[in-house]
Design a protein that fits this description.
Mean pLDDT: 82
Structural class: alpha/beta
Order of helices and strands: HEHHHEEHEHEEHHHHHEHEHEEHEEHEEH
Helix content: 40-55%
Number of strands: 14
């Protein structure tokens, strides 16, 4: 194998991917938002202290001192004037005593108030200083807590390695792109290889999925073997930075097999191809027994090595259309044996049709131009160390389909031999938990073949990874198999994404089901006109004069009043009410549109473990290992 060239970033990436425990990707877990400080609501508040009642009383006494001083002076003066009439000396003494007492009564309350006020001011200053100290301590505690929370959020690990907790023996991958599959295989393959596992990958996609993994694994000391079937079709990297491929020929699939083994292998491949082309049509007839009998009869009468070109020629002999040539694929003895057996085969319509079909299919794999010559060496699929990749390609769709099925049947044959050897206590070189068989592009292989592969791999203690591009027809029956986990990548088709969402499941949730808004406007206007008129007459009669002479008098008055009024009243009212209604709904846990819009390297893991059903979204981009704030799985394992 040629030396590989690796750049500096690739070596750093390889150091991060290799040596870590098994992981299929990274789960993004956002840290919890910063929590508020527990003392945030305990902020000290300064409340200006109220003066005590005694201080207020002394304040009033101090304000009244001026009045007392004036009264004292007046009283002292009056008293002095009265006493002065009796004795001048006594009056002077009394006046002096009154003035002294008055001054004493003036200054004593003011001094007492000033002393009390000074004491109160000192206490307020002490309380204010203590408040400032408490406030600074509170602000410091809140600031330290916020700083710790900010540091926690900014330094929290965001990407955590993800792997199935149930360790299922089979894992199905549905959907995705070539780039997404390559990223997934690089991420998990590096971990498996670094753990000493053996990884066999059957690449039926023609997308060179193992190129990145092979380029990273070879410099790490891992054995890398890439078989191109048929050979010389392509290189994984025209620049030569990938490990070179090992060319092989379809005839190498037959090397080392007996006649009955070759017949069974080809008959099973033809049966699955016929079943796939029939697509479950009614009236499908299983002709494996007839195919196996015809192929075994031909192989029994051929000398070694048995190749597809020689099988095709032998079938033509049975059909009596073979033309002998000097450099033909068959010898005269082989032609004679086949000709003698042709009469026993019969010439019924069923036999004739099967001979024609087998001749055409075998001819697809024979005499291919540009392929490597048949080595006659048995093609060992199951690896004994490191990474082993078998990639198929062909410009002919039917040839490519048949070749894929032959490779799968050859793998099943090797697994059966391995299981038989284990039953007879023969130790198998494959005995590591990290040994994995990966089948990429298995859409066309059929459910029966994949289930048979699962059974044989489980018996051999190998983990199986099946990668299917489309979730349709019988492939949906793989969902939820016993001891299996499922990974969904991007499924662009609406029906396929709906089937994936249905498998992931539904859950009860409260969703907004109704929004109501009522707006009301009321306007009213009224007018009133009133008119009135009133007429009143007043008549008075009386007498005036003396008793002897009275003079009658009378008066009459009339008053007239008229009134009118116009009244206008206007009223306006507005109302606005909104409402929200939440309803309990049974909806998808993951919407189909979410699955349709997944990034190329994103996936959803679904598994059933001891803790119940687990649905996790993750990303398998190997470049995540180079990001900051990525959890190191090696540290977690060591702890």
């Amino acid at each position: 194998m040629a030396d590989t060239v690796r750049t500096q970033p690739e070596s750093v990436l390889a150091s991060q991917l290799f040596g870590a425990p098994e992981r299929w990707g990274w789960e993004y877990l956002a840290p919890s938002p910063p929590a508020p400080s527990p003392v945030l609501n305990q902020r000290p508040v300064w409340i200006e202290p109220e003066p005590p009642p005694q201080l207020l009383w002394k304040r009033r006494q101090s304000r009244d001192a001026w009045a007392r001083l004036l009264v004292g002076f007046l009283v002292s003066g009056a008293l002095g004037a009265v006493i002065a009439k009796a004795s001048v000396g006594t009056a002077a003494v009394m006046a002096g005593v009154g003035v002294a007492v008055t001054i004493l009564l003036f200054w004593l309350p003011r001094y007492s108030y000033q002393a009390a006020q000074s004491t109160f001011d000192s206490w307020c200053m002490n309380e204010r200083a203590r408040f400032e100290t408490d406030h600074q301590a509170w602000a410091l505690a809140v600031g330290e807590h916020d700083q710790r929370e900010h540091q926690r959020v900014s330094s929290s690990l965001l990407w955590h390695p993800l792997s199935p907790e149930s360790h299922p023996p089979r894992l199905d991958v549905f959907g995705g792109t070539v780039d997404g599959w390559a990223s997934l295989l690089t991420t998990v393959g590096a971990a498996l290889l670094s753990a000493g596992g053996h990884v066999l990958m059957l690449d039926f996609t023609e997308g060179h999925l193992a190129g990145d993994l092979a380029r990273l694994a070879a410099p790490e000391g891992c054995s890398v073997r890439i078989v191109d079937l048929p050979g010389n079709r392509y290189r994984l990297d025209p620049a030569g930075t990938h490990p070179e491929t090992e060319p092989a020929d379809p005839d190498d699939l037959l090397a080392g097999l007996s006649a009955d083994e070759i017949a069974e292998l080809v008959a099973e491949a033809v049966h699955t191809l016929r079943n796939h082309e029939a697509a479950g049509a009614h009236g499908f007839v299983d002709l494996r027994s007839l195919d196996s009998e015809l192929l075994q009869g031909v192989c029994d009468r051929l000398d070694q090595p048995v190749t597809f070109a020689r099988i095709t020629a032998g079938l033509k002999v049975l059909r009596r259309v073979y033309q002998r040539e000097a450099d033909g694929p068959l010898t005269d003895n082989e032609v004679a044996r086949l000709t003698a057996w042709a009469d026993d085969v019969g010439s019924t319509d069923k036999v004739v049709d099967e001979l024609q079909l087998l001749t055409g299919l075998a001819g697809l794999l024979a005499n291919q131009q540009g392929t490597a010559a048949t080595t006659g060496k048995r093609l060992q699929l199951l690896p004994t160390s490191g990474l082993s990749v078998l990639a198929t390609s062909s410009p002919h769709p039917r040839r490519k389909d048949l070749l894929d099925r032959l490779v799968l049947q050859r793998l099943l044959h090797e697994l059966r031999e391995l299981n038989y050897a284990e039953r007879n206590q023969a130790r198998s070189p494959l005995a590591v938990d990290s040994d994995v068989v990966i089948v990429a592009g298995a859409d066309h292989l059929g459910l029966a073949s994949l289930e048979a592969l699962e059974r044989q791999a489980k018996r051999a203690g190998l983990r199986l990874v099946i990668m299917v591009e489309h979730l349709r027809s019988e492939m949906t029956q793989l969902l939820g198999g016993s001891d299996s986990a499922t990974i969904f990548m991007r499924l662009g088709n609406a029906a396929e994404s709906a089937a994936a969402a249905e498998f992931i499941g539904r859950d009860y949730k409260f969703v907004l089901s109704q929004l109501t808004e009522q707006v009301g406007h009321t306007f009213s206007r009224g007018t009133a006109v009133t008119t009135g008129e009133s007429v009143s007459d007043t008549r008075t009669q009386g007498h005036s004069g003396t008793f002897l002479e009275q003079i009658p008098n009378s008066s009459f008055s009339r008053s007239r009043a008229r009134n009118w009024s116009d009244t206008v009243n206007t009223s306006r009212a507005e109302s606005n009410s909104t409402g929200r209604t939440l309803g309990r709904a049974y909806e998808y846990t993951v919407e189909p549109t979410t699955i349709q819009a997944l990034p190329a390297t994103a996936f959803i893991l679904v598994e059933n473990g001891q803790a119940g059903r687990r649905v996790v979204a993750a990303d398998c981009n190997p470049g995540i290992a180079l990001l900051d704030r990525v959890a190191d799985p090696r540290r977690a394992v060591s702890q």
